[in-house]
Specification:
The protein is built from six helices and no strands. With about 160 residues, it is mostly helical. The protein has one domain: Orthogonal Bundle (Arp2/3 complex 21 kDa subunit ARPC3), CATH 1.10.1760. α2 packs across α5. The longest helix is centred in the C-terminal third of the chain and has 32 residues. The two termini are about 15 Å apart. The relative contact order is 0.17.
Amino acid sequence: MIAIGIIISFILEGVFTNLVSLNSALLPLFTVTALTILYPYFNNNQLKFMGISAITGLCYDIIYTDSIFVNTFSFVIISVAIIVIYNYITMNIFNINGLNIVIIVLFKVVSYLLLCIVGYTRFISGTLICGIYSSLIVNIIYGIVFYVVVDKIGKQLNIKKME
């Protein structure tokens, strides 16, 4: 179920970006959202979670961007943040949605800073804030829908998850 959820989110992100203009206020980070919601299904296997996050980030770099390893590092950093934050929250739709918002902001900041460090872009705070804002709306909605679907499927299939 984990791999299927990540693959579906990965593909949906590509489809969505082809349907919506890059200048719109609806830039998806469905894969990041999926990782945030699917972490409990790794049952405290943090190394596996970080490995899958890194591989997902590398695929993201290869397929969606021209910045090799930037998303790989960004995905690893957010996976560490997800692991740490999950130790302090309970698993429910409101906390997961709040975590999703934090992770999206963190991902955007880390990615932007990495792009600035490698000289791909100059740091402009307005660009960063606009990038964060444009990612929140659609990802909050996707996060809620994805959480409900994954939770329902997990219960139907009796898939264990950490609480």
